[in-house]
């Protein structure tokens, strides 16, 4: 009987611990951001090849979103996360510094090189009410003088790549990025466990160029591929490194007795990149259409998980459309700070929805703007209810989809629903005016034979020197 009672006692103690967080206290906040992780890559989203037990466990202990969105590329999402504003307000609608196609049909807008320092980030707002703030990993919002330290992150170390050289790590050998970034995160949590802290862990995984450890490459190379999925061993190994990092961070929180005091958010910065420009297959966003650098669902719909025992119900799923703009007001509300009065906010707080997934949001429309050539041609889009409209600027083409009936966006209803298409298009135009969205213009040097060629001496036709593909 004693062996039967021990789990019961442990369960009761856990229940007491998770219900002990005072209503008015400030929680710790951890934001873990993956890079280029697709909506269909995780086990908890149905993947049968990649192994992500720690992230899957996080989903079982919290709320998993099935219709969460980001920008279509890296820097735009990082812009709206830090600012709470749509990236179109700043013109950061492509990865910094972007790449250009000098002979394409349209000339896309020139891209700013940094997020303006005038922007008050959520780190600045939370730091003002007593939070210790720490940022580790990829920033991609500006160079020297425009990094995380200049934007409210008191402790910061900025680095990119799936490996880190001795000059970054201080060790004698090159190290795996996921392991190194986790050490920094764990040390920050340990040093600040007695006061409210805000931590952002910005991984480079699973961004190309792909690499992983020899052990993980061997493991997945020997594994039977999953039907209908590329089952790339290097990609799976790199993703497992990311998963192990998440597991170590969560375990650190739990061992320190901080579970009921800590909100953990796990997100990706955009949809998965299905193939490199060389043509090599990386992953698949199936059943969603498109990939990173497009405005189809595969480019903007991301995995998103929130865990906070005792506050966020465990094992729940949310089909409510939400977007990375919403993170700023959500964290400010949970942290008992105030929104800035000097800048607009384009997101809505998810706080009530996280506490009660049945709660609705006071918003009916989401917007995107990608006036650049990436894995598609320049476009804007919106989603209102189950309806999604995409406007492609080359040829002024409209595509209309009902996502409830057609989540794969295969059946363009623009011709069958002209009134609805016009209504949504008018709303999209009005939104672009409100936020000052910059538009592409006709290219006087347009050359159909060279339209896919990228700017830059030494580039092969159709190839990008920049690592943001």
Question: What would your notes on this structure say?
Answer:
With 469 residues, this protein is of the alpha/beta class. It has a single domain (24-363), classed as Alkaline Phosphatase, subunit A (3-Layer(aba) Sandwich). It contains twelve helices and 17 strands. Strands 1, 2, 4, 5, 8, 9, 10, 11 and 12 form a nine-stranded mixed β-sheet that branches. β14 and β15 (387-392) form a beta hairpin.
Task: Give me the secondary-structure category.
Answer: alpha/beta
What gyration radius follows from the Cα positions, in whole Å? 22 Å
CATH topological fold name = Alkaline Phosphatase, subunit A
Q: CATH superfamily, called what?
A: Alkaline Phosphatase, subunit A
CATH class: Alpha Beta
Mean pLDDT: 93
In whole angstroms, the N-to-C terminal distance is 60 Å
Tell me the β content: 15-25%
Major β-sheet profile: 9 strands, mixed
Which blocks of ≥5 consecutive residues have pLDDT under 50?
A: 1-19, 457-466
- DSSP summary: helix tally: 12
| CATH architecture assignment name | 3-Layer(aba) Sandwich
Order of helices and strands: HEHEHEHEEEHEHEHHEHEEEHHEEEEHE
- Name the shape in a single word: globular
The number of domains is 1
What's the β-strand tally? 17
Helical amount? 25-40%
